[in-house]
Target: 3-isopropylmalate dehydrogenase
Amino acid sequence: KKRYNITLLPGDGIGPEVISIAKNVLQQAGSLEGVEFSFREMPVGGASLDLVGLPLPEDTISAAKDSDAVLLGAIGGYKWDKNEKHLKPETGLLQLRAALKVFANLRPATVLPQWTLKREVAEGVDLMVVRELTGVCDHVSCQGALRLMKMTARKRRGKSCSVDKANVLDASILWRRRVTALAAEYPDVELSHMYVDNAAMQLVRDPKQFDTIVTNNIFGDILSDEASMITGSIGMLPSASLSDSGPGLFEPIHGSAPDIAGQDKANPLATILSAAMLLKYGLGEEKAAKRIEDAVLGALNKGFRTGDIYSNGTKLVGCKEMGEEVLKSVDSQVHAS
Ligand code: NAD
Ligand code: IPM
Ligand code: MN
Model:
């Protein structure tokens, strides 16, 4: 039987709500594939500031580094917004990513068949924003770009759109030159270039033109939030942050949503799907990952919707009930198979 150590970092706001659900789903999907997990929960962000006065204690760093994968909820909240920079929850997250050297941030945006809003534009969208995660907008991020291209070039449909601002920024000129040079090594990958302002517009106009969008830290942050609305809600989008070796970090792309925290309103699907990415990209457990993805589809097919994705004729549920339905849906696969 395979056994993995998973570090859970619930964090702040809706983080703990969505992590406790994703943990159960992970456990259930794993058990159907002969995969066992030991979980270790550690503090990060504001919760950690309150506990020990630091947004990322040494113990959390070492637990994360020693594990096979890390699943994070979200950090941040009004309470800590006025803290000095080094004592902000956000700093803890940035430090964690740096400590794990997770330079590549994969943010898929897949429109599920149940989604009905803007049907003609959205139907069939399946794109991935690959965001350089640990660099600032300087030469460092070019290094990241090369590694990103290598990591993703052949994994999807073989189309890669590099997004930059080479008409204005020196760093972008260098980025484009390096990306173009690297593309020569991958003749089977179709490379195109787009300026970031145009990319922002094209994402809304015709998102289906994209397969993989490869871009730097800041552009990737912004474009992935934008891409989330094509799928219906930021509450749907997972992410994987990967390094060359060592544990990956898996988290929803949304924040701690203080406006709805503690009210059982959060959509847990982004975190549940992050657990699926943990299995697929972190542990190579594709079958268990598929079980989670199918279970999410199952719950949506039955009409279950949290408030952020609710529309007429569907069934409005809270965070817990959505989580329970996904769990049931994983469970029903036992009888189906
Ligand atoms: P946010 O993503 O927390 O929330 C933006 C909006 O989306 C809110 O209206 C919120 O209710 C909604 N939303 C987000 N996740 C949802 C979910 N799962 N289900 C339903 N609705 C959801 O962004 P923000 O308000 O700009 O930031 C709030 C805090 O989160 C800040 O402290 C910020 O720094 C932090 N943040 C953390 C991360 C992270 O941990 N990775 C990411 C973004 C923001
Ligand atoms: C994200 C967030 C973080 C980022 C912040 C909270 C540091 O916006 O994960 O998308 O900029 O990476
Ligand atoms: Mn963001």
